[in-house]
Structure formats: C-alpha cells, structure tokens
C-alpha cells in the first residue's frame, strides 16, 4: 500500500474524532474491523479519500471486553452493518446494536473471540 496512516484514539474520543474528520464528499468509509488481542478488542475504522489510489486512514482504539463501544451510525449511516458484525462475531457491546443478523440462533456466540483459559 502506498500510504497508510493509523491514528490511535481513546474510546471516549471516538465520536468527536469521527465527527470532526468525516466529510462524505472527501472520504469513503470502508469498514470497521475488530480483533481479539487477548486482553480486549482492538477496533479500527478505515477510510479512503476519493480520487487518491492507495491511500487509507485508520482510527484505532482498544476496549475491554465489557466496555460499550459508542455508535457512529448517526454520523455514518452505513456503519450500522459493521457495528452489527462486531456484536455478532466478537461479542462487542456496541451502543444500539441488536445483533443476530450474521449468525443463526443456534450458532456459537462471538465465534471470533479467543477462548478464555481457566486456571
């Protein structure tokens, strides 16, 4: 990739940072990605500017398993599907996400979450 910029933010800053950054005439919202890193979930929000090939900007944060991730769907309406995916596949508590759209009712809960080792 020609140009990748990652900006680490705090969960408390998420909505303000996205609201101040996102201009739908300049930036394309790509997706939200979550990864279980063993002691919490790393979440990244990816954007690409229109008309600039190979350029991607990501905002990343880390949250604890029990923390609630603020929604950005009112800022970027298309983010709802990625937020639902975080809830279903990683068990992330996302504000306003109902879950249940990616998994069958009898599926394992949060299948992309690392197993917690007992003892």
What are the key terms here?
globular, 119 residues, two-stranded parallel ribbon, four-stranded mixed beta sheet, 6 strands, Beta Polymerase, domain 2, single chain, 16% helix, alpha/beta
Question: What's the helix and strand layout?
Answer:
Blueprint lengths: L2 E6 L5 H8 L5 E10 L4 E9 L5 E9 L4 E2 L10 H11 L2 E2 L25
Parallel strand pairs: 1-4, 5-6
Antiparallel strand pairs: 2-3, 3-4
Tell me the number of strands: 6
Tally of DSSP helical segments: 2
Proportion of residues in extended strands? 25-35%
Average pLDDT number: 93
Largest sheet descriptor: 4 strands, mixed
Strand order in space, largest sheet:
1-4-3-2
CATH architecture, please? 2-Layer Sandwich
Radius of gyration: 15 Å
Which CATH class?
Alpha Beta
H/E order of the elements? EHEEEEHE
* Low-pLDDT stretches: none
Q: Can you tell me the CATH topology?
A: Beta Polymerase, domain 2
Q: How would you describe what is shown here?
A:
It is a single chain. With 119 residues, the protein is of the alpha/beta class. It has a single domain, classed as NADH:ubiquinone oxidoreductase Nqo5 subunit (Beta Polymerase, domain 2), CATH 3.30.460. Helix content is 16%, strand content 32%. The protein contains 2 helices and 6 strands; from the N terminus they run βαββββαβ. The protein has helices at 14-21, 80-90, and strands at 3-8, 27-36, 41-49, 55-63, 68-69, 93-94. The strands form 2 sheets. The chain has a 4-stranded mixed beta sheet. A two-stranded parallel ribbon has the order 5-6. A hairpin with a 5-residue loop joins strand 3 and strand 4. It is globular. The N and C termini lie far apart (42 Å). 19% of the residues are buried.
